[in-house]
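re: ur question from the group chat, yeah i did fold both. here u go
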Amino acid sequence: MRLQGKVALITGAGTGIGAAAARRFAAEGARVVLAGRRKELLDEVAAQLDAPGGEERVAAVACADMAETAQARAAVDSALARFGRLDVVVANAGGHGFGALAETSDADWRLSMTANLDTCFVTCREAMPALIEARGAIVVVSSIAGLAAGPTVAGYVTAKHALIGLTRSIARDYGRHGVRANCLCPGWVRTPMADGEMDELTERHGISREQAYSLVTKDVPLGRPATAEEIASICLFLASDDSAIMTGSVLVADGGATAVDLPTLAFV
C-alpha cells in the first residue's frame, strides 16, 4: 500500500500504460483520477477500480485535449473537489508524429508537439500548486525515442526528447518546494498503439503480430517487449516514497535496447 492516502491524476488513462498504472496505483491504495479522450474506455478502467462498499476511489474525466488549459484545469479541479488533494501526476498522454522532416506538414508537426509535449506541460503547470501543497511527484512518460531517433518519426522523436528537458526543468525549479519530477523512457511495450505499429509490419512482411514483436526486439538483449504492467510498476516506484531522493532522473525500461552497440551487430 505504497500510495495509501494519495491521490493520482493519470493522463492517457484509457488504455495501455495509463490504464495499467491506474490499476496498479489503485491496488497500492491511491485514489485515482483518469483523464483521456475516450469516455467509454475511461469508464471501463474506472469500473475495474471501484472499491466494494461504495467508497469512491476513482473519477473519470473525459478531456478532448489535455493541452488545453481549461480541460487540464478541469481534471485537476476534479481531483481536488472529489478527493481534497493531488499528490501525483502521471503525464502519460502522447502519440502522433510520423514522417521524416521533409514529409511532415506544419499541421502534423504541431499535432505531435501538442499530443506529446504540450499535454505534459499544461497538465503539470495546472497541477503544480496542488503538488506543492502535497509535496508531490510527477512521472513523465517519454520513450527511448527521447534518447535516440527511429526512422521517419521526426515529430515524435523531437517531442519525446523535449519531455526529458521539461522534466529536468521542473525538477530544478520545484525541488525546493518539495515536488519531484522524473522521466521514464520505455522501449517497445505491448499496448494498443504498439499493436497498430506491429500490424503495419504484418502487412509489409506477411507475418503475424507476434512475429512482428519478435522482429522489432530481435536485437534487444531481453528479446521481448515490455508489458504495460511492467512499466506501471516503474511508474509506481517513481510516484512513491521508495524514490524519495530521486528527481530530474531519466529511467530507461527497454529490455536493454539502448545498451546495444549498433556497429557490432554484424558480429552476432
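okk and heres the other one u asked abt
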Amino acid sequence: MGRTGTTRRGALLAAGAATGGLLTACSGRDEGGESEGSASAAAVRAAKALRAKSTRTSRELLRRYDAVLDRHPEQATRLTPLRGAVARHVTALSPPPPKEGESAKPSPSVSVSVSVSASTSPSASLGTAVGDTGPTPSVSADAGTAVRELAAAERRAADAHAEALVHAPPELARLLASLAAAGAAHAFLLTEGSPS
C-alpha cells in the first residue's frame, strides 16, 4: 500500500516481467515476486553500465580538449566554450544521487568546473575531480591539424553516444541523443572554422 508515483517505465517493466513469466510458465512465485525484481535489477545494471561507458567516452573527449588547449593556448577563445559543454556532458552523465531510502554508496563523483578563464589552464580547472587516469592524448604541433583531429574525436564520441542510445532506457536515451547532436554540432563548428 506504500506504492505511490508509479511511472510508465515501471508499469511497462512490470508488464513485461509478468508477460515473460506467463510465457515461460516457470514461475510459481507470488505476484510481483522475484522474477519481476530480477528483470528490473538487470535493467538497472545494464543502464548503469551503458551510462559508465558513455561517461568514459565524454571524459576521453574532455582530455583531448585539455591536451589541445595545453599545446595550443592561442585556440582558447575558440575551444573553451566547446570544452565547457563537454565538461557539462560528463556532469550530466554522472550517476544521479541516490533516491530517498536507497543506501548512499560512496562512488567517484564528477565535479567539473566549466568556468575557465583564458589565464587559467583548462586541465588545472578540471583537476582530478573527473577521475582522469587515462593517458594524455598526443596533439599535433600544427594548430589546424590539432583542431581537425579534435573534430574527428567529437564525431567519434557523437557516433558512440548515438549507438548507445539504441540500447538505453528512455531517460538515458534522450540524454545520449542530446549529446550525440551536440557532438555533431561541435564537429561541424570545429571543421568549418578550422584554419587551412
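fwiw on the second one: Residues 38-95+109-192 form one domain. The chain has a mean pLDDT of 74. idk if thats what u expected
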